[in-house]
Amino acid sequence: MVQPSTSAYLLGGLLGLFLLVPVQMTQTPASMCNPLKTLNESLSHRRRYMKHNFPINYSIRVHHNEIFKVSSIGKMKLLVEGLDELVLQRLWFQVNQGVLKKIIRVLPERHPSRPYTAQLESRFRDLEGVFVHSHPAEVFQQELPETIQDTWDHLTEEPDRVPPSSWRYASPKTLLDNLSHTMHCLFRECFASTEEQQDYCGVSRRRKRRKKDLKLKS
Ligand SMILES: *[C@@H]1O[C@H](CO)[C@@H](O)[C@H](O)[C@H]1NC(C)=O
Ligand SMILES: *[C@@H]1O[C@H](CO)[C@@H](O)[C@H](O)[C@H]1NC(C)=O
Ligand SMILES: *[C@@H]1O[C@H](CO)[C@@H](O)[C@H](O)[C@H]1NC(C)=O
Fold first, then answer.
1. Which end of the chain is more exposed for a tag (fewer CB within 10 A), N or C?
2. Mutate which of 57, 58, 169 for ligand 2 pocket (most atoms within 8 A of beta carbon)
3. Any idea what the Cα angle at residue 65 is, between residues 160 and 143, rounded to 5°?
4. Is residue 8 part of a domain?
């Protein structure tokens, strides 16, 4: 027979676990910093490969949700109260995986930007691998807030089911600009020390540590 105190203890332990997960998630795991810096290094050549090697004003068709800017992050935070940054990081991977795929798709085999883009995508995948491995699997099974889930569903929709009004045209260079800016915002712990105090997330954001308090109470 389980003593009441034992079950209370077990329950407390379980609750503690659930409360702990999101708290840890707000930090970028240190293991991500090297692959992030490697990707950042690739991105530093984007003007040359994503602008100079393309016709003037060249643009590709993307879903409007694939225009993922620093301001989009701000909007989502306003829409979803207490939005976990990990959710935004997951969305960032989903969005940019699609963006990179679309850029590669328009590049002929012998295009001078092809090797660059392939390397960029491979570094992006490496980073995603580290991201997935540095978080417990349950984190990726957590239900997403409704607004985020909607966005996610649109991103994974079959292209011929996407209403024409949802498409946008954007140049590969601006898409990568935004990939880079949002990366510095969402994974800022890995960039903070080397970059001059530029705040990629826009307004200074010292969030109240509500979750930390919760954890202390449990
Ligand atoms: C990221 O790349 C930029 C160049 O685009 C560079 O100035 C900066 O130092 C890099 N940051 C890190 C942390 O490697
Ligand atoms: C490129 O776009 C700009 C601004 O939309 C326009 O002024 C310019 O004429 C365009 N250039 C070409 C070559 O289409
Ligand atoms: C990228 O972001 C900048 C500002 O952050 C914006 O002006 C531009 O339209 C964006 N472009 C795309 C394709 O997302």
1. N
2. 57
3. 100
4. no
